[in-house]
Amino acid sequence: MKPTQKPKNPYFSSGPCAKRPGWTLDALKGAALGRSHRAKIGKTKLADVIERSKAMLQMPKDYVLGIVPASDTGAIEMAMWSLLGERGVDVLAWESFGSGWATDCQKQLKLKDVRVFKADYGKLPDLKQVDWKRDVVFTWNGTTSGVKVPNGDWIAADREGLAICDATSAVFAMEMPWDKLDVVTWSWQKVMGGEGAHGMIALSPRAVKRLETYTPAWPLPKIFQMSKGGKLIDGIFKGETINTPSMLCVEDALDGLTWGEQAGGLKGLLARSNANLKTMEKWVAGSSWIGFLAESPEIRSNTSICFKITDSWYASLSPEEQEKGAKKIASLLEAEGVAYDIGSYRDAPAGLRIWGGATVETSDLEALLPWLDWAWNEVKAAAAKAA
């Protein structure tokens, strides 16, 4: 039977992600539109995003945080182009974006000493292979695979290289061991439900020292430059952005932070994401047709929750038919106005991906689950009828 109750908010995309509960355009009424981002009002708002983010994330006081162009991609590329090349680099890749950073190190930066440790979707590479005398580039949470690192224990406290972490779908949803991380990047469009195009980059004192003592062999575009004359351009980390930001997006980011503070700060946000994952785990445990792409609970994401279809009939299909079946589930639910954008990422195995970050209400996930079962049964019944 087709369910009757629908999620109040059908937005389960893994980016841009659902707006915070209760969000309307009225949240942007205070935006400094038509004003220079260099005017006092603009700089104050930009600095406010930085300082409130640092406070909520409980970032060490000696770390610096800045707003940069081009979302998380811009932030991580800025880090790689500015910091790498001083020593050998290890890159960990277990999904699309980590593989992309490895490709950039090898084919764009053309670094001579790069080691890439890869794992299939749903798994992690052996973290013990990492040599902390080298710089290490990795994602904390693989957005396209639903696989995260279990913790920071594998990162050496006495490392000589830098730990450069793309944490875009982890920050505000997972514990970040700041003392183990030298560069952390993310975007507003993930856990806090902000708008795209703006990234954030946090630097440890060790990363700042590298910027001030090392000059890459290649030219750096202006939007990547974080130091000048051997000194950090500290204005970037006080709200003086490299290029013009959208003050409408800035206002939205501030609104998200206000909501996060009211939702219990970091502890409250983590609890919301963890509750969402538990809801999905309970459903999967009682299901006969679906499982997690990340089979091990220790490495399972609580934000980009990725699923594979485990039914024996489905497993007998060709890869092309499997992909069509998974896409049909997603399209059926979109047509019903129940769930939008829940297909797996284009490079990932056929399946489903449902965002469980803090802006998603657990009650909406609970309402979605019967619909997922319904859509699966519809797809399987249609295939049986066609056969």
The assigned CATH architecture of the largest domain is 3-Layer(aba) Sandwich
Query: How many DSSP E strands?
Result: 14
CATH topology of the largest domain: Aspartate Aminotransferase, domain 2
Structural class: alpha/beta
Gap from first CA to last CA? 22 Å
Key features?
single chain, alpha/beta, Aspartate Aminotransferase, domain 2, Aspartate Aminotransferase, domain 1, 2 domains, seven-stranded mixed sheet, 9 helices
Structure commentary:
The chain has 387 residues and is of the alpha/beta class. The chain folds into 2 domains: 236 residues, Type I PLP-dependent aspartate aminotransferase-like (Major domain) (Aspartate Aminotransferase, domain 2, 3-Layer(aba) Sandwich); 122 residues, Aspartate Aminotransferase, domain 1 (Alpha-Beta Complex). 35% of the residues lie in helices and 15% in strands. Helix 3 links the parallel strand 2 and strand 3. It starts with 39 loop residues before the first helix and ends with a helix.
